[in-house]
Amino acid sequence: MARIVVVGSANVDLVIQTPHLPQPGETVLGGQFLTAMGGKGANQAVGAARLGATVTFVARVGDDSFGQQCLAAYQKEHIDTQYIGVTPDTATGIALIAVAADGENTIIVASGANMALTPSDVAAAEPAFAGADILVLQLEVPLETSIAAARLAHRHDLRVVLNPAPAQQLPDALLDEVDIITPNRIELAQMMRLSAEDVQAMSDDDLARTALRLGPRSAVITLGADGALAADPGGWTRVPAFKVDAVDTTAAGDSFTAGLAVALARGETRLADAVRFASACGALTATRLGAQPSLPTAAEVDRFLRAESTGSSMK
Ligand code: RIB
Questions:
Q1: Taking phi first (over 0 means left), then psi (-120 to 50 degrees means alpha), and beta for anything else, what does residue 310 get?
Q2: Counting atoms of ligand 1 from 1, which one is nearest the CA of 291?
Q3: Collapsing DSSP states into helix, strand and coil, what is residue 43?
Q4: pTM (2 decimals)?
Q5: Burial letters 68-86, b for 16+ CB under 10 A, else e
Q6: Active site annotation includes 254
Q7: Per-residue confidence at 1, pLDDT binned at 50, 70, 90?
Q8: CB 248 less than 6 A from any atom of ligand 1
Q9: How far is the CA of 229 from the centre of ligand 1 (A)?
Q10: What is the DSSP secondary structure assignment for residue 184, as one 8-state letter?
Q11: Is 90 helix (H, G, I), strand (E, B) or coil?
């Protein structure tokens, strides 16, 4: 049984579909409005739970109705919510999301209670770390909290997976504690203080070397339609992307991270094979609208992978 601890953000997503993403100063008449559960941390926790892992989510919500909705949603997914705090006089994290007809999106997050998650909250959750396999982190809560979680994870022999989103420069105090980092090109550019153009022009070899220079032992660089690179000191492998009709790419990266963590926690030893499973999770998520509503179950991923390997198409 895969046991995963996620320390990270919980948001409610307010989503509007739009023919195109607005330019600065532009008003666009959009389409359907949707309220969905989101937040990178919560998406990764729910994604891992739907894939069959036993998940503890360490987070903070506000003392508002959104916070109560979040807790109820995670409990429905059989996630251990005992270490989710409710912060008084604070709003639950909210994300305003625009989704264009081609599936691309823009996201603005009002962090709210996510920024009240402290190293003490992590310390209180220590019993959940004992006996777990993997800690999953992202960057929507205070950095010192993520650092405390990564250190605690290593004291309990967990592997630490960091999805470095949203993009930012990171201190060695965090990078030194990470076993597997999963940047996309933009995040890699930000962390390495390179231009987006320089990273876009890099060969696979350069991408792999650059990501490993960050410090973690392994790196998975996600390249959108170009697939992903699984890199460790022994070399790198390009794992092709699955071709799907994208409806909304929101949470595709979170679903990928959840898939990667679950595959590794289940004992997958080849990073490239774990990345293939993760890619299937991300691809399926992009075919549906919304963050948590779009995260696939283990059965859906298995069916998708079987259809891909026999060459039959699946929607
Ligand atoms: O990765 C997608 C998520 O980013 C959304 O669910 C939104 O809440 C933001 O955290």
A1: alpha
A2: 6
A3: helix
A4: 0.96
A5: eebbebbeebebbbebbbb
A6: yes
A7: confident
A8: no
A9: 23
A10: B
A11: coil
